[in-house]
Amino acid sequence: MINLTVDNIEVKVKEGTTILEAAKKAKIEIPTLCYLKDLNRPASCRMCMVDVGGKLLPACVTHVSEGMEVKTHTKRLRNIRKTILELTLANHNCECTTCEKSGNCKLQTMANKYLTGPGEFEVEFEKGIDNSFSAVTRDLSKCIKCNRCVSMCSDKVGASAISLINRSEETTVATPFNIPIIHSDCIGCGQCITVCPTGALIERGTTEEIYDLLGEDTYYNICLLSHGTYETLAEGVGVDNALMKAKVVDVLNKLGFSEVIDYEEYLIKEMNAVAYLLKENMLEGKPLIYSCSSGIRREIEDVYPEADDLFVNLSKIRKDINTRFKEGYLDRNIDKDVHLTRVENCTAFLPETNETSGIDISITTRQLAKLIKTSGIDLNKADNKPLDNLDYTGVFNPYFLSVNTAYAIIRLGEKASIKNDKGNIKEFSFDLSDGKEIKCAVVNGLKASKEEVKKILDGESEYNFLCVIPCEGGCEFGGGRPVITK
Question: Which domains does the chain have, with CATH numbers?
Fold first, then answer.
């Protein structure tokens, strides 16, 4: 163990610990902008500079040593951080009052903490907004070149859709050859948004569309809400998870939704279709590849076009289901146009609307949280209401298989036994009623997904069913969840 002092507080930590980690153990906060634990520590923002025996060292990458004496908040360090922030803001579009990240921006929080007025430097920032892709919008005027999004995209997701280009003061974050992001390798997962400390990366706004939709009396608005969104929605609104789950239906009714349907139940219909296709493929001796993200499928097929026949055509299934779903309301004598709004923790669903899926509008839990907060509705005074039932028997044939089979696919870990957990790859198996074993795997990230698809194409895989997911941990940790800087 290594003994040191941080602001005169004695700390004992393991060898290899950084000063930043040692300070956290002593409950001392050292400011950072570019640092992301285990992912991004270029030490480029210099906000974490500390004083070690008169030397200035970046706390995020400097390892502790025996007897080290660290000072974290001297007058000298405060002036350095003040200058760094003033220089950063001189290259930043400070339209904080209308910025999507206002109130939840790390740069804004630090400016409020360390600055007492405008800086001495002339403001000049890079201009340009790329909103070519509805999953992600880039605003160059708010980018501080922290590299967090680049590390997330390349190292965690494996897409490498963006990177740092040019040198010195010309350095910027961009797509290859500065092409529009819709033409890049971006899969729309939105993980870059979750780590961006400013408003440089956000999903393209659809909140105004929702306001317009809910304000029209000619529409019968239905909200599809999954169980996985409750906790993240509660976090975004700032209430208890149990309270959100009890009140969310009444809140959405007051916002203008006529029905709020359990998307989990709705998803079983989708999984029935997938189970049907899996059975067909198994009869032909072929595996089946499933992905809820059209972006990750597109990128895999760009490399391995022969994989197209093995992928579930999810857009076709969803459009068929949603079309039949809307037709079911004709028998209920509803004289309004039925509009479906889907709420997800994922930004990859945002482009999949209207013609592609039959969903009229897709929004993230982050966007819905904003709608709820600006609605003026007091959740504590809202009524407890259950979700509406999904009830239109028969309209989803011919894709019908047993619910157990569908659940086994949709909840592999619940209905199946985990055979092997390899980090990005989790292997499962479950038995059908005829005793046949189905071998499955869930893969996180584009890089690992490409590798597993290649094994399937080369005949080196034993999987009958491969589920590829862009985000580590699944949709609960998607790029559309509320970003909480604290």
Answer: 2-73 (3.10.20.740), 116-202 (3.30.70.20), 209-477 (3.40.950.10)
